[in-house]
Amino acid sequence: MTTSPRSILLLLLGAALSACGQTTSPTSPGLAAQAVSGDFSRWGMSWSPSTWKNGDPLFGCTFSKNNLTLGGGSDAAVYGWLDSSTCSEIKSNRWKTQGTRFGGDIYVPNVAGTTTTLFTYFNDGTVWNEIDVEFVPSRGSLHPALIYRNGGSRYVYEAWIPAASNAWHRVDVNWTASSIIWTLNGRVVFTMYRNASLPLGATVVTGSGSSMQIPAAAWPTRSQQLIANFWRGSNTADARGFLGSYGGGTGQAIWNNLY
């Protein structure tokens, strides 16, 4: 792999800290860090860096492989950078199925107007489903969400759970035929239950308390790809309503031990 200018800067920073008798913090890649030039392996899976701009008007940046750094040696983490024009995304070759779990350790930087995520995704051009773990610093929250579309309206089922930024979080999502359970730092924080008698209604439904009912028509049943990203909003009204205003901040998200 080649080394990007940003990675060189991080390596020089690590060398400077070592010369002063200090070690790099757990939120910085170490001296053996590597830039990402293509597909790579982590946590028993193959991953691909995204290099495109999401067409959704919420997104205000272009995914770049140059923003990604792999920890070296015993550091198995993936580091994703964000600035005003570029952001970070990795896609696994592993597709999650109903009856399995996904999760891992995520470091969430406190950059207003951004989100650090781990989610599953399916889209065949007609049906779109997502199961989301999204940390939103401007709201001080974790945003567990389920998205469904079948050639027409998009339906979003969501909640907002307090969660700190500039902090590590361990997340787990257990997706079954009857429920989806979000666990944050060892505590169940939200559950969605499949309801066969509930019709599709409002296109955005925000749950209160610790659980909510989901129409069976919106329930995910097909295999979905595992994806992690760190991106900023476009500062449209919808983006500000979701993520808050982005004011040009930079930051680094970290993912480790994903499954």
Distance from N terminus to C terminus (CA atoms, Å) equals 24 Å
Question: What is the architecture at the second tier of CATH?
Answer: Sandwich
Number of strands: 20
Basic shape = globular
Unreliable stretches: 1-25
Largest sheet: 11 strands, mixed
Q: What do we call the CATH topology? A: Jelly Rolls
Helices and strands, in order, run as: HEEEEEEEEEEEEEEEEEEEHE
Q: What does this 3D model show about the protein?
A:
Keywords: Signal. One of its GO terms (molecular function) is hydrolase activity, hydrolyzing O-glycosyl compounds. The chain is mainly beta and 259 residues long. It has one domain (5-256): Jelly Rolls (Sandwich). The protein is built from 2 helices and 20 strands. It has helices spanning 5-19, 237-243, and strands at residues 34-35, 40-42, 45-49, 62-63, 68-70, 78-82, 86-96, 101-108, 114-123, 127-136, 141-150, 154-158, 161-162, 167-175, 179-184, 187-195, 204-206, 211-215, 224-232, 251-256. Strands 2, 3, 4, 7, 9, 10, 11, 12, 13, 17 and 19 form an 11-stranded mixed β-sheet that branches. Strands 1-5-6-20-8-14-15-16-18 form a 9-stranded mixed β-sheet, with no helix packed on it. It is globular and about 55 Å long. The two termini are 24 Å apart.
